[in-house]
Amino acid sequence: MPVTELGSSDRILAELRSWVEAETPTTDAGAVNRLVDRCEAELRAVGGCVTRLPGRDGFGDTLMCHTPGEGAPVVVAGHLDTVWDHGTLATSMPWRVDGAKAHGPGIYDMKAGSFFAFHSVREILRQKVRTRRPVTLLLTPDEEVGSPTSRGPIEQAARGARAVLIPEPAGAGGACVTARKGVGRFDIQVHGVSAHAGGNWQDGRSAVVELARVILAIHGMTDLAAGITTNVAPIRGGTRPNVVPPEAGCEVDLRVPTIALGEELEARILGLAHETDGIRVVVTGGMNRPPFAQTPEIVALYDQAKALAARHGYDLPTQHRGGGSDGNFTAALGVPTLDGLGCTGAGAHAPHEHILWNDLAPRCATLCALLEEIG
Questions:
Q1: Is the CB of residue 97 less than 8 Å from the CB of residue 357?
Q2: Number of Cβ atoms within 10 Å of the Cβ of 356
Q3: End-to-end Cα spacing for the chain
Q4: Most buried residue, 24, 125, 303, 332, by CB count within 10 Å?
Q5: Which neighbouring-strand residues pair with 192?
Q6: Cis peptide before 54 (omega within 30 of 0)
């Protein structure tokens, strides 16, 4: 067990409930900041060295807390925002504990894991536990939309760090993450020429038809054997059946396993922009999360975590994931990064979202022990 006393799963669940019942959709900076306020006050009360970076572009604030110590720090980062709108608790996803499962919006992705990080650092400070290295805690407001304002602080904290720990949800079988695909996002706008679909069809240039060609080209870039996937959604276009549509558009999601493939596919998608015969296709966007590649240093960090998990009574398998996280940014800097250290459960972004709450104490203990023992 870690030196730090963290309490039982029941105790952790009781406090976690207050986090889940504080609804924090990414789009409501005020709601996110109310939870940031609570975290800041509690960390200051136990002597944490706290920095709060004001939000911008409609997002909440980023909170950083440093513990005492010398040398390169261990960074632990979690996000406070969720994909769930206000009112979800009162309608479709009320807080409830059903046997081994605790339900609520954002409990799995990733309030349980972010609470692990906060609770561990708060108790390390409160109990004056001496860690082998200083610890830097980040709590961020905008991961669910790609971390547009928190990426900079995350990368700044990671530069020169000994390691980065990301308590995103555990995967199937409780797996943590040693690699993730990179993520690209693009927006495509097609401009055509409107005309009466019956009276002068020949004068029109259908933006919808051209968009269909572009969509098929993007779909054709998927190569499962190479680890490349593309997805087009949502799509939009046209006004009425009897009007040749002058406007259409879509969004594109790209996933790739390596930086080189990210560069190649980004260039191919951006290269679909063109202008011909009254049609203009505009493509914007690019890679917004670099691939998170497994390295020997990450494997060594995983081996340490696996041994600690065994000490706390459970196995810790590993997996590579297609979804991105803030760990993509830190791993791309060459900093050993271990992800998926949050709680077990299922249903991220889905109505059945839940955690297996009996795993709260042992999973939090492993994270805290890593903070104490990484040398």
A1: yes
A2: 20
A3: 17
A4: 24
A5: none
A6: no
Helix, coil or strand: residue 190: strand
Q: Is 121 exposed, middle or buried (0-12, 13-18, 19+ CB in 10 A)?
A: buried
Closest CA to 291 of 329, 253, 318: 329
How much helix, strand and coil, in percent to the nearest 5, is found in the chain?
35, 25, 35
Residue 120: both structure tokens together: 């561990």
Task: Work out the average pLDDT over 222-245.
Answer: 97
H-helix segments, the chain: 9-20, 29-45, 112-126, 151-158, 207-219, 259-270, 296-311, 327-332, 360-373
Yes or no: say if 168 and 329 are a contact pair by the CB < 8 Å rule: no
Global pTM value: 0.91
How far apart CA 279 and CA 281 sit, in angstroms, is 7
For residue 34, count other CB atoms closer than 10 A to its CB. 15
Model confidence pLDDT, tens digit, residues 166-191:
999 999 999 999 999 999 999 999 99
d(CA 325, CA 168): 8
Q: Which two tokens stand for residue 123?
A: 């108790």
Token pair listed for 320: 């590579």
Phi, psi for 151 (deg, rounded to 5):
-60, -45
Residue 273 tokens, joined: 């922009």
